[in-house]
Amino acid sequence: MARVDPKAVLEGRIPGRPPIGLIAGLTVSSLCALAALGVSALYGGAGFWTGLVLAILPIPLLIALMLTLDRLEPEPPRTLVFSFMWGAGVAVLGALVLNTLGMIYVTVPVFGEAEGHFVSAVLGAPLIEETLKGAVLFGLLWFRRNEIDGVADGLIYAGMVGLGFAMMENVTYYMRAFDEGGAHQLGAVFVLRGIVAPLSHPLFTSMTGLGVAYAATHRRGRVVVPLIGLFGAMLLHGMWNGATTFGLGGLAVVYVLDFCVLLVLVILVVVDRRGTVRRIETYLPMYAGTGLVTPQDVQMLRSMQSRRIARRWARMVGGPGAARAMADYQLAATELALLHKRVERGVADPRWFDARRDALLNLMALARQAFLRTPPPAAPPWAPQGPSGFMPPHSPYGR
């Protein structure tokens, strides 16, 4: 069998070097992030380094929370990194420039000093910032539509770009708090932005992510629904920025509203995951004739716990290479089920479907060969009485 690049197959790209667009995008985003940090360091004084450390501190935990939404069918790491860097670089620097120009030339001259800042915070900043953050999601929808398979994918990309933006924005807030009020005020701002409400920007941008995910997986509403999602992101953002005007009561109302939105998003992810499991149970049995999957293997693929047990068994019988092969098999099988989801919704080109299906089946066959070359000493734990595609045909437990 010809050699296969598992990552390229799973990511739906041509094997070989990383795309030049990705390299260019990461370069531009990194330069923008450095420029934004340079401006903060230039005008920030002694609080810059303290603000930078505090802004970065919760990011690993928050990214880990985001990735829990994406365990059944993980997104390509390079695309997640690009989304994060876009939020931390292009979106932040663009918002810094446009918000400043808007206050200088539009809101303050028209409404006055105090009211101009309020209008900029409630209307201007949400419009500019959510448009810039959402640009990367619209770019994925245009250039990498097939990468977005459902609600969870839209939310994970929106969450990553929102976390990048929030991290850079928090540098400014922490720096300003330290310079104006010392350690006491810095602690209060850190509790508010870093502990109590660290997911505010990801939550705003998730509305755009929902719209983009819908457009990527449906034939109707491809233009209108993403724009509605973008408007929802601006609305949530504007309400958050304007809540401080109404004191603690206003903040409490917005906190409750955002918490309810967060609960709804979690429910949507759970429903989306169940839909993926249902499609695994529906579509994979039709490939039983290939020898790549049996009813017992389908049962293994339908839960995260049984997948983890399967990878552990693979490592035990074949070492790290077999564990990686099992992970490739599981992801390819999930992608195959999601491929049929696109067919049932009428958003899959027939020629692309055939090529993608064959590539995924080829990867599943390659992963399975890792176990058939050296027969495992015992039946897989998810198929103790057989049959399983991971046992040789002549085995008592094989096909």
TrEMBL record:
Keyword Zinc-finger: no
Start and end residues of each stretch annotated as Disordered: 377-399
Entry keyword annotation includes Heme: no
UniProt entry keywords in alphabetical sequence: Hydrolase, Membrane, Metalloprotease, Protease, Transmembrane, Transmembrane helix
UniProt-listed InterPro entries: PrsW
Transmembrane segments: 20-42, 48-69, 81-106, 118-143, 155-175, 195-216, 223-240, 246-271
Gene Ontology molecular function, alphabetical: metallopeptidase activity
Matching PANTHER family: PROTEASE PRSW (PTHR36844:SF1)
Protein's recorded name: PrsW family intramembrane metalloprotease
